[in-house]
């Protein structure tokens, strides 16, 4: 099925050749972008363009892209347990439940936030690859909590930029094994894929810069509840950094957690929750802030570890 995108030409592409602009916008090669233009699948303000035409900022671009071979597509069906915390014309903020990925990926057959929103009748921005439309940040499938999705093209561009420029407040709570020393601190260590290639990530020399700030909310006999502020947003960042300082998230067996403790607390996944998300609204500019409560499994585990202390 063809993938139709419609969006205003971003300011940063003012004066760019059409083929170069398409390549940048959609991750195409320059040759592939020229082929799409030659096929008549690109309109600017309702009219066809040639590959050498120069684009003007704000012009309305309509592009029809064929899906890449084997690309996953979102299954539009409601996701049980996923609630909407806030919605307007530009954004929708959800409380993501356990076992739900942000968007389709190769090898993932479970539900997704994107598919759940589409299945419930919500609109999302058409910017981004077909399987990631509207997605401006992600949570691991088994990490619960607050997640924002762009509905308008303006919101998509603004939020992607805000995340890239680290102007978004991303707060997590994590129950970790033991007691970090000091109780408040920063982990500044580069992250990349684990050399074993088994899906894990690790602190690796020459990896991508990654910074995690943590503060102890409450200390228990066997664990500590931390408030975590992410300065960067790498895949598995909190899980990797907590494991690196020998205080893995309780229940996170992939990163060295104690399975006995996890079983005692009734946990089948890492104790990690995206509790708060705050940013400048993409259209009115005011600060907006969204919070989500702990899900039942994390709340129960916290009650047990507190009772044992």
From TrEMBL:
Keyword vocabulary terms for this entry: Isomerase, RNA-binding
EC number: 5.4.99.-
This protein's record includes keyword Isomerase: yes
Residue ranges occupied by any Pseudouridine synthase RsuA/RluA-like domain in the UniProt entry: 90-244
Recorded superkingdom: Bacteria
EC class: isomerase
Keyword Aminoacyl-tRNA synthetase: no
Active site: 140
Recorded catalytic activity of this chain's protein: a uridine in RNA = a pseudouridine in RNA
A Pfam family the protein falls into: PseudoU_synth_2
GO molecular function, one term: RNA binding
CDD domains referenced in this protein's UniProt entry, alphabetically: PseudoU_synth_RluA_like
GO BP terms: enzyme-directed rRNA pseudouridine synthesis
Function statement: Responsible for synthesis of pseudouridine from uracil.
UniProt similarity note: Belongs to the pseudouridine synthase RluA family.
Protein name, entry field: Pseudouridine synthase
Species name: Actinomadura craniellae
Higher taxonomy: Bacteria, Bacillati, Actinomycetota, Actinomycetes, Streptosporangiales
């Amino acid at each position: 099925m063809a993938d139709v995108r419609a969006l205003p030409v971003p300011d940063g592409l003012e004066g760019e050749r059409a083929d170069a602009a398409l390549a940048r916008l959609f991750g195409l090669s320059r040759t592939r972008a020229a082929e799409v233009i030659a096929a008549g699948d690109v309109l600017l303000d309702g009219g066809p363009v040639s590959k050498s035409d120069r684009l003007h900022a704000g012009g309305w671009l309509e592009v029809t892209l064929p899906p890449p071979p084997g690309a996953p597509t979102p299954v539009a069906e409601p996701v049980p347990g996923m609630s909407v915390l806030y919605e307007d014309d530009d954004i929708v903020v959800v409380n993501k439940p356990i076992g739900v990925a942000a968007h389709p990926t190769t090898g993932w057959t479970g539900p997704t936030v994107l598919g759940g929103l589409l299945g419930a009748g919500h609109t999302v921005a058409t910017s981004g690859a077909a399987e990631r439309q509207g997605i401006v940040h992600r949570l691991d499938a088994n990490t619960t909590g607050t997640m924002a999705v762009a509905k308008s093209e303006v919101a998509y561009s603004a939020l992607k930029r805000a995340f890239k420029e680290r102007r978004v407040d991303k707060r997590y709570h994590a129950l970790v094994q033991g007691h970090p020393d000091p109780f408040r601190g920063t982990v500044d260590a580069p992250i990349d894929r684990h050399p074993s290639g088994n899906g894990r990530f690790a602190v690796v020399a020459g990896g991508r810069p990654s910074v995690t700030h943590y503060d102890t909310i409450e200390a228990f006999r066997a664990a500590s509840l931390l408030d975590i502020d992410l300065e960067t947003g790498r895949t598995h960042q909190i899980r990797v950094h907590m494991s690196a300082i020998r205080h893995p998230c309780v229940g996170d067996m992939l990163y060295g957690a104690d399975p006995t403790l996890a079983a005692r607390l009734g946990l089948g996944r890492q104790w990690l929750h995206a509790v708060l998300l705050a940013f400048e609204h993409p259209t009115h500019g005011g600060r907006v802030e969204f919070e989500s409560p702990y899900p039942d499994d994390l709340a129960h585990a916290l009650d047990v570890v507190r009772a044992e202390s």
